[in-house]
Specification:
Length: about 270
C-alpha cells in the first residue's frame, strides 16, 4: 500500500485506479493472488528448515519476494493512462497547430440593387417605361452609378426620348471620362437630335479610345459601325469628301457593304 501511494506520483494509472469505485480492493486482491503462489512454496521450505536464524531469513525473503511480485503486477496493469486522463505534469503539448477557422465575410451590397436588376431585365424585355421607373428608383439611391445611367439612357433612346437619353449619357460620361461607351452613345443621340458636329466630336473621341485599347479594333464590327456612322454624319453636313473617306474605311472591312457603297457613290456624285 505504501509503495502504491508513492508510485501514484509518477504512475498516473495508479492514481486513477485508486480514485475509482473498486480501486481500494485491487491492491489486496493482487496481494492475495501473489500469495497463493508464493506462500505455499515458502511454507514447504519453512517446514524443512530448522529453528533459528534460517527460518527468520526465509520469512523475510518470502515477504520481500511477495512484495516485489505484487508491485510488479500492479505496475504492469496501471502503466497506461486511460484516454482523456489529465495528469498534473502540465498542459498537453500541441504537436500540430491547426489553422484558425476561416470567417466568411458577406460581400458588400448596393442598396436598392433589386431596382437595378429588375430594370435591366425589363430593358431586355423591351418594357422601356417600367425599366425607366426601376432604374430611376435605383439612381435616386445611388446617384453615381454609371451603368445605371447608361441603361436608363438606352431605355429613353428606345422610346425616341433623345433629350432625356442625352442627359443620362452625359452624366455617365462625367462620372468616368475614360469609359468609352458614353462617347459612342452620345454620338448616336446627338446625331438623332441633329447636332452633327457634336456627334462627330464624340465619335472621334470614341474611335481614338478604342484604338488605344487595340490596334485591330478598326477591323472589327464595332469599328465598321463607328466608321459608317461618321460617314453618314459627314454626309448630312455636306462634307462629302470626309464622308467618302469613312465609307471607304467601312468597305475595307466589308467590301460587300451595299449601303456604304451606295452612300459613297451618292457623295461622289454630289462633289461633281
Amino acid at each position: 500500500m505504501l509503495l502504491g501511494g508513492i508510485s501514484s506520483s509518477f504512475l498516473p494509472g495508479i492514481s486513477v485506479m485508486g480514485s475509482s469505485t473498486m480501486g481500494p480492493l485491487v491492491l489486496p486482491f493482487i496481494s492475495m493472488v501473489i500469495g497463493v503462489f508464493i506462500f505455499p512454496v515458502a511454507g514447504a521450505l519453512w517446514a524443512r528448515k530448522g529453528a533459528g536464524e534460517s527460518k527468520a531469513k526465509l520469512g523475510i525473503s518470502t515477504l520481500l519476494v511477495h512484495t516485489l511480485f505484487a508491485y510488479g503486477l500492479l505496475v504492469s496493469i496501471t502503466l497506461e493512462v486511460p484516454e482523456g486522463y489529465q495528469t498534473d505534469i502540465g498542459p498537453p503539448i500541441q504537436t500540430e497547430i491547426s489553422a484558425p477557422e476561416k470567417q466568411t465575410l458577406a460581400a458588400p451590397t448596393i442598396e436598392g440593387l433589386n431596382y437595378y436588376e429588375q430594370g435591366l431585365k425589363l430593358l431586355e424585355d423591351r418594357n422601356y417605361p417600367l425599366a425607366i421607373e426601376n432604374l430611376t428608383g435605383f439612381i435616386n439611391i445611388n446617384p453615381k452609378h454609371l451603368e445605371a445611367y447608361m441603361a436608363r439612357g438606352h431605355a429613353y433612346a428606345s422610346l425616341e426620348q433623345y433629350d432625356k437619353a442625352l442627359v443620362d449619357y452625359e452624366m455617365a460620361n462625367q462620372l468616368d471620362k475614360s469609359y468609352v461607351w458614353p462617347y459612342h452613345y452620345l454620338a448616336l443621340t446627338l446625331r438623332d437630335l441633329g447636332r452633327y458636329q457634336e456627334s462627330i466630336n464624340n465619335s472621334e473621341t470614341y474611335v481614338e479610345l478604342r484604338l488605344m485599347e487595340s490596334d485591330v479594333w478598326s477591323e472589327t464590327e464595332q469599328g465598321l459601325g463607328a466608321y459608317f456612322h461618321m460617314g453618314e454624319v459627314y454626309f448630312q453636313i455636306g462634307q462629302y469628301k470626309k464622308s467618302i473617306e469613312y465609307f471607304d474605311k467601312v468597305l475595307e472591312i466589308d467590301e460587300d457593304h451595299a449601303v456604304a457603297l451606295q452612300k459613297k457613290l451618292e457623295a461622289a456624285g454630289l462633289i461633281e
